[in-house]
């Protein structure tokens, strides 16, 4: 993320490979053993060295792997939690989901044959809405396959899907979901073929692979991207996307084209567009939260002889939350007791806005300044707040220290090695995550000077310097839009796989989340696709553009936070709301006097909603009391016949009821 003075700019095109893919297969067991070894060793570390370790997870589409993967993931989670409790570690253990339901329509692999249309085509049933027809785009003058749909509703969300291939035809599926001003693209199959005639599947001719975009032109207005996919010539690829309408339309066109506007023949088939109501969307979010963020627990109370105790008073209070929700902080929090208390009353995670960036810690060659981040780290540690490391390098030349800009060759290589060692040796074991090379999809300062493997080398050296840190890619315009050709979800996935195939230990997906008007259906589709990688996904810098008024910012912020929290693959949410006397980067939660703004009210309401209020009652005829609670640590108090006992327990992820036995 840019410092407050740095603006996003244009970027030079960069190349990526479609062929470097890393699959999650049965090597999971080997990885699990290695992780268990790391866990055992870290348990012996000194208290100041202990930190959060990300659990292993799997996102492979192969159904045969989903069950063992899930079992290993849970076993590792349990071991890590046990270690954390023994050592008094400050950070909870989180894992990316390893469930197959996420992958049902989020294929990251190409298929030999396209899948049938979702919802039997929905409102794009062939013969009703019509087969795709030719559509001449005003940008290129080239005909593209297109669907024409009528009378789309402003208050309805539409999901869209399709599959792609270069030598075969892909499937194009639409699905729709009603939500105020929301449309969703769920999936699409596109392939490359000689000619385009059928709906749903897309096929190209004249290229082995291409980035294909699905675009929406409502009532002949400007077209916008609603989905992307990297299509190949040898198989069918699955596409997911979404769109939001600001007004009802009489006639809308959904068409497909090569992302770089190069003329290309495309064939589409099996389109599907299905509507959902706002209530349906919200119900799905709540159902996922219930299954993934909560767990049922039953307290069994017995006397010393093992007989059930009926009518015992049970009180349960949540003391910590497993799911990290946090905010950026700046040096303005130092010495400001009111700000510090406001922060720790709300958040269990933090990230430093600018204070760890290279231009802050070494403004001149050899002049190291760590006093401010040291003080900020002491503050978060004293309150058991997990903290992300942001960032080691930033590919944006405008965010590079002035003295570094003039370096090349061995001088630059020496400087970057010194940077990694000075930073990560000093803070070894202190930061749960590190954003290693920020925004590498948009910028390429280091790779232009040190070669295309520079990022891979950064990850390798960082891993050696702090083996227990989770290393992240971090990028903007991946989750916010699909109109940025440098950072589509497909480009992000390709780069991540390229780095991992080259040996980089890259274990985290960082999505900045600097939103204008959020497209929630597209957001879900992108998360579904990223979830197939089986890595923890973090929203690292959420805010809403200050071009909107405070009330609108609050509405959009709530939409984004609810969708992020309800998605099973998301492991944490960070807000980019570091408070300065002059304001914040784009969005503040309070004014300088810590009086809530509308966005602050939203955050407070959601934080209160996503925690277990003090639960209590009496044991039933079986001597048991049950409740459903959010994941985290709890204090349990049981009273009976003037006797009281107090203990602690945790609710970790799991489908089964957690049973706690208490003897009075």
TrEMBL record:
Q: Name one GO biological process term.
A: polysaccharide catabolic process
Q: Which InterPro entries match?
A: CarboxyPept-like_regulatory, GH, GH10, GH10_AS, GH10_dom
Q: Which GO terms describe its molecular function?
A: endo-1,4-beta-xylanase activity
- Does Transmembrane helix show up as a keyword for this record? no
**Active site at which residues?**
541 (nucleophile)
Keyword Transmembrane helix carried by entry: no
What residue stretches are annotated with the GH10 domain?
A: 310-606
Q: Which UniProt keywords apply?
A: Carbohydrate metabolism, Glycosidase, Hydrolase, Polysaccharide degradation
What is stated as this protein's family in its record? Belongs to the glycosyl hydrolase 10 (cellulase F) family.
Q: What is this protein called?
A: GH10 domain-containing protein
């Amino acid at each position: 993320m840019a410092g407050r003075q740095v603006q996003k700019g244009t970027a030079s095109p960069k190349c990526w490979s479609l062929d470097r893919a890393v699959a999650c297969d049965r090597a999971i067991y080997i990885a699990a053993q290695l992780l268990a070894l790391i866990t055992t060793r870290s348990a012996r570390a000194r208290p100041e060295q202990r930190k959060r370790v990300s659990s292993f997870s799997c996102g492979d589409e192969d159904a045969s792997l989903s069950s063992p993967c899930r079992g290993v993931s849970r076993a590792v989670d349990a071991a890590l939690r046990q270690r954390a409790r023994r050592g008094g570690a400050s950070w909870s253990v989180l894992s990316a989901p390893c469930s197959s339901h996420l992958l049902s329509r989020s294929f990251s692999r190409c298929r030999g044959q396209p899948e049938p249309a979702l919802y039997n085509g929905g409102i794009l049933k062939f013969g009703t809405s019509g087969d795709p027809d030719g559509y001449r785009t005003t940008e290129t003058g080239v005909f593209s396959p297109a669907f024409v749909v009528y009378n789309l509703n402003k208050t309805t969300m539409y999901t869209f899907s399709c599959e792609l291939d270069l030598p075969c035809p892909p499937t194009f599926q639409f699905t729709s979901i009603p939500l105020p001003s929301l449309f969703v693209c769920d999936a699409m199959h596109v392939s490359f073929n000689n000619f385009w005639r059928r709906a749903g599947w897309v096929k190209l001719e004249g290229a082995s692979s291409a980035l294909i975009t699905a675009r929406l032109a409502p009532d002949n207005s400007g077209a916008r991207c609603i989905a992307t996919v990297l299509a190949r010539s040898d198989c069918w690829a699955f596409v997911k996307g979404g769109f939001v309408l600001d007004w009802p339309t009489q006639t809308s066109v959904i068409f497909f084209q090569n992302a770089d506007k190069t003329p290309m023949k495309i064939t589409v088939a099996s389109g599907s567009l299905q509507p959902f109501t706002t209530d349906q969307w919200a119900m799905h979010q709540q159902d996922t939260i219930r299954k993934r963020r909560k767990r049922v627990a039953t307290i069994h109370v017995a006397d010393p002889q093992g007989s059930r105790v009926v009518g015992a008073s049970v009180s349960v209070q949540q003391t910590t939350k497993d799911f990290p929700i946090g905010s950026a902080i700046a040096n303005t929090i130092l010495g400001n007791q009111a700000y510090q208390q406001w922060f720790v009353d709300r958040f269990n995670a933090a990230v430093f806005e600018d204070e760890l960036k290279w231009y802050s810690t070494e403004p001149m060659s050899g002049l190291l300044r760590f006093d401010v981040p040291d003080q900020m780290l002491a503050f978060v540690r004293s309150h058991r707040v997990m903290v992300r490391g942001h960032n080691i390098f930033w590919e944006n030349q405008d965010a590079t220290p002035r003295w570094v800009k003039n370096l090349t060759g061995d001088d630059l290589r020496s400087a970057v090695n010194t940077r990694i060692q000075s930073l990560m040796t000093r803070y070894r074991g202190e930061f749960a995550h590190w954003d290693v090379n920020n925004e590498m999809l948009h910028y390429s300062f280091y790779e232009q000077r040190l070669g295309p493997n520079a990022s891979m080398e950064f990850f390798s050296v960082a891993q050696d310097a702090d083996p227990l840190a989770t290393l992240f890619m971090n990028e903007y315009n991946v989750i916010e839009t699909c109109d940025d050709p440098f950072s589509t979800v497909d480009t992000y996935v390709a780069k991540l796989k390229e780095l991992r195939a080259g040996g980089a230990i890259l274990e985290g997906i960082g999505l900045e989340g600097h939103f204008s008007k959020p497209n929630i259906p597209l957001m879900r589709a992108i998360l579904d696709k990223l979830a197939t990688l089986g890595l923890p996904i973090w929203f690292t810098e959420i805010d809403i553009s200050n071009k909107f008024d405070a009330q609108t910012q609050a509405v959009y912020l709530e939409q984004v936070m609810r969708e992020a929290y309800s998605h099973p693959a998301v492991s944490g949410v960070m807000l980019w709301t570091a408070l300065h006397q002059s304001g914040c980067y784009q969005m503040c939660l309070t004014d300088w006097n810590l009086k809530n703004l509308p966005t602050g009210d939203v955050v407070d309401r959601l934080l209160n909603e996503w925690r277990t209020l003090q639960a209590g009652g009496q044991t039933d005829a079986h001597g048991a009391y049950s409740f459903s609670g959010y994941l985290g640590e709890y204090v349990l108090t049981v009273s009976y016949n003037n006797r009281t006992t107090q203990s602690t327990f945790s609710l970790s992820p799991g489908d089964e009821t957690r049973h706690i036995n208490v003897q009075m």
